[in-house]
Backbone:
């Protein structure tokens, strides 16, 4: 029989649960990226907190942080390698033209016309602005508490509102502002005879 040399205490405690370096790196590949990022942050904080030179424990912590950072970098390289590949998953990208599209919609559609034409609200004049019953779900408005100003809508009863895009998103219970923007763009193209 072949005798196996016993492991030194630093070799045993270098990785959690007595894992080898390879086992530890394979285990890191199975955890979600959000957990990995949190582990990196916590580990770096702990190493910074260890101001005294504690010898092996400080070295072990640095080795574990290096393994976490290597895994994060491996994941980033994989993502960068597959960008533009036809079989790569289509991650939702932030639309850089959203701001310009939103500004164009706001220039063509006033809050008053949104409330009257799109949401079907009946507005009444009150001083320099309009008032109406709240159009937002979950607010049973008995007296008009929704105020329509020149650039936004605000309900003082439920403390919700915003510009035309946000108002439509809240009133229609949409989860995304992009959906509201596309709805308003479609409405404007129909209202303007197909030209935007």
Residues:
């Amino acid at each position: 029989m072949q005798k196996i040399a016993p492991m030194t205490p630093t070799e045993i405690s270098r990785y959690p649960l007595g894992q080898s370096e390879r086992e530890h790196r394979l285990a890191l590949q199975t955890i979600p990226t959000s957990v990995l990022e949190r582990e990196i942050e916590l580990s770096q904080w702990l190493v910074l907190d260890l101001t005294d030179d504690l010898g092996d424990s400080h070295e072990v912590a640095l080795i574990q942080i290096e393994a976490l950072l290597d895994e994060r970098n491996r994941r980033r390289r994989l993502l960068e390698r597959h960008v533009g590949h036809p079989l790569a998953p289509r991650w939702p990208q932030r639309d850089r033209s959203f701001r310009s599209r939103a500004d164009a919609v706001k220039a063509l559609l006033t809050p008053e016309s949104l409330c009257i034409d799109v949401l079907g609200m009946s507005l009444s004049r009150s001083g320099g602005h309009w008032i109406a019953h709240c159009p937002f779900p979950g607010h049973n408005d008995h007296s008009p508490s929704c105020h329509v100003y020149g650039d936004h809508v605000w309900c003082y009863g439920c403390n919700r509102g915003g510009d035309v895009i946000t108002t439509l998103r809240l009133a229609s219970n949409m989860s995304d502002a992009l959906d509201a923007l596309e709805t308003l763009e479609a409405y404007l193209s129909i209202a303007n005879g197909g030209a935007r």
